[in-house]
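Listing S7. Sequence submitted for prediction.
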Amino acid sequence: MIAKGVLSTDHPVMAHIIPIRRCNLSCTYCNEYDTWSKPVPVDTMIHRLDLLANLGTTIVTFSGGEPLLHPELDELIAHLRKRRVIACMITNGYLLTADRVKRLNRAGLDHMQISIDNVMPDEVSKKSLKVLDKKLQILAANAEFHVNINSVLGGGIRNPDDALVVGQRAIELGFTSTVGIIHDGDGQLRPIGERERSVFLEMKKFEKKNFSQLNYFQDAIANGQPSDWKCRAGARYIYVCEDGLVHYCSQQRGYPGKPLEEYTVEDIRREYLTEKGCAPYCTVSCVHQVSYMDFWRDPQTITVDDDRARAAAAGLVQIGQ
């Protein structure tokens, strides 16, 4: 992945794709789900995965909603592996059983992330260690893929110390552990308290050397400071919604809002050079992680104000004109 990414900037390193928007949970801080959407048809999904592979995408992560609600998810993962693309998934873990984990093994899943928000379920989130610990034990006994448990701070989470308990349990079970700071509906930072910052620093000690460790931006975020970086969303990272449109990320849906079928190297090159106004206080870690690959090169020379971005999303102008 790194060698390919360093050699050329004309392909996405990572894409998140939505096979279903529906979720079986309703966490109050989340704006990425509904309760009614049907799964995207398998033929449509395979076509989109082929388009991503043809663009040279290295990693594709299934997200949602809850991707395990898609009845043909195993087929989609297996298809990605046939195209020599790294297959990942973000799930709430509720639907995992020993049989389901073994099916994911056979499909060729490479990486799974589960976010656990608290120790005991509450009105903010049911993604609790109490509910999910048995699922984690099933993963520890059966998973042949890498598992990362992500703890969270902010966003109304009542007890910051819960993140430490979750992180310690992840390490006990042989998983990696990371910590994230929950963003608002625009993916932007909201201040966290002194105890949360202290927990954040403690959690950093749990992190091992893996791709998810590339989160240096959070050091600034934890202190309420802007992060100075070049966001390569729309180029090195793309987000493909259930309608097959390409967006910067889950929190900037609508920009550029172009069908994946029409997305080309020219779009990648344009967005690679486009400065994003939301970048300084962004907490969307996957975009930061992918953009680190190019921090040392190619200044961004295209600036887009909000009005032009909205016009671009509506198809009235092209960003970069």
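Caption to Listing S7: primary sequence and predicted structure tokens for the chain studied. Residues 129-142 form the longest helix (14 residues). The CA atoms of residues 239 and 247 lie 5 Å apart.
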